[in-house]
Specification:
164 residues, Purple Acid Phosphatase, chain A, domain 2, five-stranded mixed β-sheet, 19% helix, globular
Length: 164
């Protein structure tokens, strides 16, 4: 089984800002996926140091230092599945975002995305769309992340809340 820790919209300067359950997932997961809006390049450095493997894209609030190191979108293959990762970096309001993302990745089995800060898991036309939400708590909104499992060709995902 492949266990993938998915997070986005952390808006943090370093790994110490992650809630403890999320920080533990960084080293426990087979793969860490960050769907953009790191904010601090130290956070990216620390993820690279502590994760077994990292796949990441930059988000609309990430500065030049991160944009020079990461792509705005990424496609990876795991266990026969095509996984697309995007923030989207163009930002803006979330309506119509799904339509725009679908046009970028028409062949993806799984689309991991950020930007809205709202966790979401849905199946659309055989594709899993997964947004882990925001990596920090705010008034009334817990920090959230997603765990994606791939085993024997099957895909499952769960959204986890921290600090509710």
């Amino acid at each position: 089984m492949t266990r993938i820790f998915v997070l986005a919209d952390t808006h943090m300067n370093n790994l110490a800002g992650l809630p403890p359950p999320m920080a533990r997932e960084v080293s426990d997961a087979d793969l860490v996926v960050h769907c953009g809006d790191f904010t601090g390049s130290t956070f990216l450095d620390e993820l690279q140091q502590h994760a077994r493997s990292l796949a990441a894209v930059y988000g609309n609030t990430d500065g030049t230092a991160i944009r020079q190191r990461l792509p705005d979108k990424l496609v990876i293959g795991i266990a026969g599945h095509t996984i697309a990762i995007i923030h989207p970096s163009w930002g803006g309001p979330p309506w119509q975002m799904d339509k725009e993302i679908a046009q970028v990745f028409p062949e993806a089995d799984i689309i991991l995305f950020g930007h809205t800060h709202e966790p979401e898991k849905k199946w659309r036309k055989g594709t899993l769309w997964l947004n882990p939400g925001q990596g920090y708590s705010t008034v009334g909104y817990p920090a959230t992340y997603a765990i994606l499992h791939i085993e024997d060709g099957r895909v499952d995902a769960e959204i986890m809340e921290v600090g509710k």
